[in-house]
Every structure is written in C-alpha cells, then in structure tokens.
Amino acid sequence: MSANNNLHVITHPLVQHKLTLMRKKEASTNSFRRLLNELSMLMAYEVTRDMPTQAIEIETPLEKMTAQVIDGKKLVFASILRAGNGILEGVLSVVPGARVGHIGLYRDPKTLVAVEYYFKMPSEMEERDIIVVDPMLATGNSAAAAIDRLKELKPKSIKFMCLLAAPEGVATLQKAHPDVPIYTAAVDRELSDHGYILPGLGDAGDRIFGTK
Ligand code: URA
Q: Could you give the number of structural domains in the chain?
C-alpha cells in the first residue's frame, strides 16, 4: 500500500488484478458483482488494519490463554446510495457484526448542491467508527456532503473507502475533510466533462445492478 496525505492506494496484486477485470467493458453483471465482493473483502482487510482489539480469556484444547478480538459492533459501514450498497456484502463477510447505515443524496440540477433524501444510521454513533463506502470518488461532492452530515453525529472516527478515485475528487474531499483518510485501489487520470472517471469502469451503479 502506498500512502501520503491521508490517501492510501491499495496496490496489492490481488486488488489490482480484480480491479482490471472489473474495468473491462465485456465483464458481465454477474462477474462484475462477484469481483466487487472479492475486492471489497480484500480492501476491508487494509481499511480495518488499525481497528482496536481487546484481550479476552479463552481456553484452547490445551490450556488457557489471553487472546485478541475486535468489537465488530462498534464499526459502521455507511453506504452512499445506491452504488455503495455493492460494497456491503464483501465488507460484511469479513466484519459480520458491523452495523450498516445508508445515505441518499442527489445533485440539485440547478444549484448542483448535494441534497439529502435519505439518512439512517445506527444509534449511539458517538461510540462508533465509520467507514463510508462508495465505489467511485468522482467529483467528491457527495462524499464531502455525506461526511459533513456524519460528523454532526460525532462518531469516534471516519474513513472513506472507494475502488476508484479521480484526482479532482481526492482534492475536493481532502480540502473539505483533511482528517478523513481515503482508501482506494487506484487514482485514475481525470474526470470527464460529464463527471465520469477516466479511464474508469463506467457507471458503477449500472454495472452492479444491471440497469442501463
Ligand atoms: N460514478 C460512476 O458510477 N462512475 C464514474 O465514472 C463516476 C461517478
């Protein structure tokens, strides 16, 4: 993994291999979704690397010992609708006790401001660590708006996890929230005039859900 300025690019060969397969235009909905699950699992491994553990007493078949466990229930995956939901299955398979929140935002066509239409989080957010998930960090506006809203709940920590980022999106999010680490599998060349990441992988929501 390479990291600077709170930007962590997960360069592990398995992650890069699966991302390349997902980018291919001929990947079917089925294989895109399966690869996204696998990639989300592998990325969760890096994103949760500094998760706190606590010591508990257990007994092996041979003797008693003190061993480390995580408190998965303290973790919240906050999905930015709708494409963020494509990441949930993979991350929950490695942290099954985690809670899940959803944030729905749309861009007002006149003002281009992100407007919230849905927001549902678990209770007691002050005790929780949040990992915001969205496959594409494109303009960065919805990620920044989602994190603005989550910060109102005063969680212990917030991280942002995506598959692909545009340099413009990284800059916007880092300017708005320099304290939030970004985890991605790649930072692509640029954002197109239509807000697509180039070379990218197309519309993540359409490819996950088979809509078009
Ligand atoms: N959202 C997508 O799904 N794809 C992009 O390239 C940019 C934003």
A: 1
Query: Which residue in 60, 66, 108, 111 is the catalytic one?
Result: 111
Average pLDDT of the chain, as a whole number: 95
Q: What average pLDDT does the segment 153-182 reach?
A: 97
CATH number of 126's domain: 3.40.50.2020
Choose, from 34, 82, 107, 149, the residue flagged as catalytic. Answer: 107
Select from 192, 159, 172, 178 the least CA-distant residue to 91: 159
- Contacts of residue 114, Cβ cutoff 8 Å, sequence gap at least 6: 105, 106, 107, 108, 141, 142, 144, 145, 146
Write out the residue range of the structural domain in which residue 24 sits: 2-209
Distance from the CA of 63 to the center of ligand 1, in angstroms? 53
Q: Are 8 and 174 in contact (CB under 8 A)?
A: no
Could you give the CA distance from residue 111 to residue 199 in angstroms, rounded to a whole number? 28
- Model-wide pTM > 0.90: yes
23 catalytic, yes or no? no
Residue 73 has a pLDDT of: 79
Q: Which two tokens stand for residue 107?
A: 């861009």
What DSSP element (H or E) covers 116?
Answer: strand 114-120
189 is catalytic: no
Question: Which protein residue has the closest C-alpha to ligand 1 atom 4?
Answer: 203
